[in-house]
């Protein structure tokens, strides 16, 4: 017989997550994107003077790297460096001690615990200690359901190792081409872990779709 969890208990277990309010001059950003779409990159950057300096850098870098028309022939590494790296640097690198890595090397915290280490595509560290893990699928693996499910499983393994080290929340990011998800693995009671999906954010694939990222950026801001 399968036990069922009532709505009242479920609400106590899964608390609503409040997203951070994004204060941004949307008109300036949209006008800048339209100029960039027409090839006027210098003028586009000039319109971003009213925007926070980190956001200016992120948007400027994305406008430099994004094609006008979608290009699905790029490799996963090119996708990570051109489409994802500027976003994570712009949003999550809010502390000078923080570093964003795309190592695809052994998870350090798993190695310390004697667990067979996974190799996350994204690792964010503060003072050398891992604090966030991420997995990425580029355009060629977008519809590879088996690979993407396996990535999620490995993310949870890395997250559990982070929790086993005494942390309360393990922040996790999974990016599947143009769609990203920010999740948190948490310990609710002894032996019970819960994967919370905070929300989805857009990953731009062209200059004009940077606007979709802006409208969903509050999800990533909550990772701070």
Describe what this molecule looks like in 3D.
By secondary structure, the protein is an alpha+beta fold. The chain has helices at 7-13, 26-37, 41-46, 53-65, 76-92, 108-112, 145-164, 210-215, 217-221; strands at 98-101, 122-126, 129-137, 169-176, 179-189, 192-202. The chain has a domain at 66-221: tt1808, chain A, CATH 3.90.1570. It has a 6-stranded mixed β-sheet, sandwiched between helices. The longest helix has 20 residues, at 145-164. Residues 1-7 and 9-14 have low confidence and may be disordered. Keywords: Membrane, Transmembrane, Transmembrane helix. The chain crosses the membrane at residues 201-223.
List key phrases describing it.
224 residues; tt1808, chain A; 9 helices; disordered N terminus; transmembrane helix; transmembrane
Topology overview:
Elements: H1 7-13, H2 26-37, H3 41-46, H4 53-65, H5 76-92, E1 98-101, H6 108-112, E2 122-126, E3 129-137, H7 145-164, E4 169-176, E5 179-189, E6 192-202, H8 210-215, H9 217-221
Parallel strand pairs: 3-4
Antiparallel strand pairs: 1-2, 2-3, 4-5, 5-6
Helix pairs in contact: 4-5
């Amino acid at each position: 017989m399968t036990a069922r969890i009532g709505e009242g208990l479920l609400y106590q277990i899964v608390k609503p997550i409040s997203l951070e309010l994004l204060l941004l001059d949307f008109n300036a950003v949209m006008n800048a994107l339209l100029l960039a779409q027409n090839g006027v990159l210098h003028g586009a950057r000039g319109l971003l003077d009213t925007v926070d300096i980190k956001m200016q850098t992120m948007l400027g870098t994305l406008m430099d790297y994004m094609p006008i028309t979608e290009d699905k022939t790029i490799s996963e590494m090119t996708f990570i460096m051109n489409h994802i790296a500027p976003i994570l640097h712009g949003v999550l690198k809010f502390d000078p001690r923080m570093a964003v890595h795309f190592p695809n090397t052994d998870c350090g915290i798993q190695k310390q615990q004697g667990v067979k280490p996974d190799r996350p595509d994204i690792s964010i560290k503060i003072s050398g200690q891992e604090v966030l893990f991420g997995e990425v699928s580029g355009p060629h693996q977008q519809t590879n359901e088996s690979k993407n499910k396996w990535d999620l499983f490995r993310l949870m393994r890395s997250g559990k190792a982070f929790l086993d080290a005494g942390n309360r929340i393990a922040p996790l990011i999974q990016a599947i081409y143009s769609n990203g998800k920010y999740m948190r693995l948490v310990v609710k009671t002894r032996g019970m872990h819960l994967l919370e999906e905070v929300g989805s954010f857009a990953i731009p694939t062209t200059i004009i779709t940077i606007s979709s990222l802006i409208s969903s950026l509050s999800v990533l801001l909550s990772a701070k």
